[in-house]
Each structure stands twice: as structure tokens, then as C-alpha cells.
Amino acid sequence: MNTLILYATKYGATKQIADQLARELGGNVTINNIHDGKPGIEAFDTVIVGGSVYMNKIQHGITSFLKANEKQLIKKRLGLFIGCYTPPETEGYLEQFFSTALLAHAQAKDMLGGLMQYDKMNPVYRKIFMSLKKIDDFNKNFIEPKIETERIRAFAERMQTETMRC
Prior knowledge:
This is Menaquinone-dependent protoporphyrinogen oxidase. The chain contains six helices and six strands, in the order E-H-E-E-E-H-E-H-E-H-H-H. It is of the alpha/beta class. Strands 1, 2, 3, 4, 5 and 6 form a six-stranded mixed beta sheet that branches. Helix 1 crosses helix 6.
């Protein structure tokens, strides 16, 4: 399997996810940050695309890549993921970031966790989150996010075992 993992990250957590996913997949895996240039996907039979969600938005580079390459991606073994602190059980969340056609075609799709990297946040957002964490009602439901190792492992297994749907 000749695999491309194309990702975008704001603070680095999505790169950590992409690196762990590459280790789980093994084989010939190329990891590419979309900000370093958009590679041609012709040479890859498997393409995995992921981005971080920040303030309910995924990076523009990811959305523009997906729109520009949707027809080619549907001919590939495809995986889609996001890195975020939204709970993975949140129904309909992936649909905000990926087209219906890509989601229907994807061999694996999931939210693979994230990190709240307060020291790297915009000072305004950091102050908002720190203020929220002082509110008891907020803390009752807030779980500090983490990179979901088991979900990444399961994602890699789905990419390796499912037959390609075209």
C-alpha cells in the first residue's frame, strides 16, 4: 500500500496524530503538511486527509484540497480524520468538514483526539478557556482532550483491512 497522509495543524497535535497513524500503518507512507505544498495524489493508492479543528473550523487548505481533488479521491482508498477536542460520539460533526460523497466513500473516518495547548493559543482564546475552567458547571462536562491512541490504531486497521469501495 502506497499511502499519503496529508494533514494541516495549527499547534502540532494533528502532526502527532499523522505520525502515529503512519507508524500504525507501516509500509510505504508519505506524510505531508499541506502548508508545505500540495502533492500530486496520482502516485498513491491510499490517501488519508486530516486537519485540526479550531473554533469549529478546519484549515482552509484542507477544504480547498478536498474540493479540488474530490473526483480523484473517490478513486482511491480514502481515510478522513479530524483532530479536535470535541467528543468522538458527537453525531454529525464530521459532516461539517467533509462532503457527503467523500464520507460515503471513506474506508475510515473518525475524530482522533487533540490537545489543548494553552501555551500556544492566541492570548484571547487562552484567557477564555482559562476563565471557563474556573466555572464549576463548565468543568462538570469538560474533559481535557488527548490524542486517542486506540482510535488511531482502529483507524489504521480499517484502512488496512477493508476492501476499497469505488
